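Methods: holo model generation. Sequences were used as deposited, without trimming of termini or removal of tags, and paired with ligand SMILES retrieved from the corresponding compound records. Each pair was processed once, and we did not select among multiple samples. The sequence and zinc ion SMILES for this entry were:
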Amino acid sequence: MRRLIGFAALFAFAAATPAAAQDATVVIHTSKLLDGKGATMSNADIVVVNGRITRVGPAAAVPKGAREIDLRGRTVLPGLIDVHSHLTWYFNRKDRYHTRGDGDTPIESILAAAANAYSTLMAGFTTVQSPGSPEDADLRDWIATQGLPGPRILTSLNALTHGSPDTLRMLVRQRKQEGADLIKIFASASIRDGGKQSMTDEQLLAACGEAKAQGLRTLVHAHSAESVRATVNAGCTQVEHGIFVTQAELDLMAQKNVYFDPQCSLVFHNYLDNRAKYDGIGNYNAEGFAAMERAIPLAAADIRKALATKGLKITYGTDAVAGAHGRNAEDLICRVKDAGESPMHAIVSATSVSAESLRLGDKIGAIAPGMEADIIATDGDPMTDITAVRRVSFVMKGGKVFRNDGKN
Ligand SMILES: [Zn+2]
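and the model returned the structure below.
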């Protein structure tokens, strides 16, 4: 871990966080609760002490001095998790996608990232995994220790894209030293460039093998069927995107216990809706946009097949980029409406399954005793109307309330 969390930072944290938010017992009254593991409870109380859930069950006498929060009439669920979000991507003052060298200062860039983190948290996402930017580390640490409002962040720092097997092994060790929580690898080209395999089997074996030896997970960008097969066979732990997978690769992922993180539509629609802001930068050109348009029906069809694949673990990752932050729940709606997923299965994917993919299944992703108090509520019930996930009206992260519409 990066060692910026010294004594000064710890004191700043204590000063910025009122004691009441940390120490008091909080009792949350609910009428409908989804626990994140597939169970539904009626009229349950959630007791939170020092930011952790200590009891979930029938309403009982409220402990003396406890603060009460009434969420009856809403639907209560664990904080949502997006395992693929690029918080540092934003539109600059010229309303163009920010790239290095566009004249923006590091301060402008980090403020934009902080704003994205805030939007994400307010949308009910209490944890995100951000693959691919070194700036993520400071954002992660300031949110964790300095009171900056945002989701918990796990980051890969810079992704690995090329190099000899020895160089890749060295880079994996270097990322770990720099404080990366995971390793991000590009095994194929972008969807805008056709998605063909771009790292050899040998390179993937080196990178994923070293990461495994270092105790780190590996998130691998792979679109073509061959790149997905190579990724799984190299012992990597998660496949991102996989637009051109066939049933054989889905079965292989299931068999090898590799998590699959497909996107349903937000990332594609966001690019197309914001075309003028991206157009002309890198591979954001006519061909690239056409490729993304073609990907939309494929994406929903992939998810449909993935859902029917026995034993395949499907995480929830939107690949949120500039323009999409705060709309991370849109893929839940797509997965239910366009890919035929049951609302409960989709919610479990975006909570406990994604938590497990982060190796945090014992801390987040469920409402149960011993878990961090990451709790949200929606106006309306996502089980009967999945669009309710757009109407998050309560957000608690680690026992601290960041949003309670109508009550703040
Ligand atoms: Zn991405």
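The chain has two domains: 7-79+366-404, 80-357.
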